[in-house]
Amino acid sequence: MSVLAGFPSRGLPSGTPVEEIGARPGAPVPEELIDRQTPAILRGFVEDWPVVKAGRDGADALRDYLLRFENGAVVPVSVGSSGLKGRLFYREDFSGPNADRGNTKIGEALRRIALHGQETDPPLIYLASATIDQVLPGFRRENDVDFAGYEPLASIWIGTRTRIAAHNDLPLNLACVAAGRRTFTLFPPDQLPNLYIGPIENTPAGRPISLVDFADPDLERFPRFAEAMKHAQVAELEPGDALFIPSMWWHHVEATEGFNVLVNYWWRTVPRFLGTPQDVLNHAMLTIRDLPQAEKDVWRGIFDHYVFGNSDETAAHIPEHARGMLAPIDEASARRIRAFLLNQLNR
């Protein structure tokens, strides 16, 4: 059972169910997801995957199925005691993650997860975001989703019971439950102030996370979390289900079984050469955030003019051949802009 089931008894809203949309197993990803701005459950979308069927036959059958594709790849694994109750977080002093990290062959990780996951109070063993084609070559020939023209990054997440703090991701995300059960608690991007996000650069897994323990929220320390839960959407997923997560939606993920496998696909609808807005935010922290308020107001107007409110009129008065980065960006101009930025940063 999900530890989040106790939310209502703590006086917190339990969240509204994520909307379900029609999806036929084996069909391409529905086109409506590309422009969709809210999460959606695709119930049974990957239920015909062989890995899903192996998982239903038990931990040993699931392990043996995955070992068919094992190639000796070494993968990073997080390991912690049962006392962590599956929660991947910080140490008390924020000096690093609360779980130990090391490397092992994926076959050994699978054997340990299958063995210890069956214990009543299992330790935390977690293999996160491994590129499938690198660590389990051939897996996607039997278990994959048709993205009809897009080329997503396909990753696999395998572990015992885990609780992953609320975080967000830039790409669109299709998360497919291959084994075990998962509870996703999702929040729209505008709930950032109510989720009490931790450090930007010092993170347990690469993305800033909420400091709220969803299993035992401290409302004295994090009082606005109660407001966040008024906007929460919850997805209870079974093996074979998939969940679409729009760009930048916050999501807390809880895997509730002893042996859990998730396959996810990240993709963007814009060219890769455009880079990531996170780099802009990080640089703005350095260059704009601590300016006097009057100067920040000026830069807010500049950003509105050139970035958020950009239109054809922004550079219409400049000859086309002289517009530089004010012109529409293609791969060649993106390379020139990066070279310009690197030169400026290295001065």
Automatic annotation (TrEMBL):
Entries under Pfam families matching the protein: Cupin_8
Residue span(s) of domain JmjC: 125-284
Matching SUPFAM superfamilies: Clavaminate synthase-like
Coiled-coil intervals: none
Listed name of the protein: Cupin-like domain-containing protein
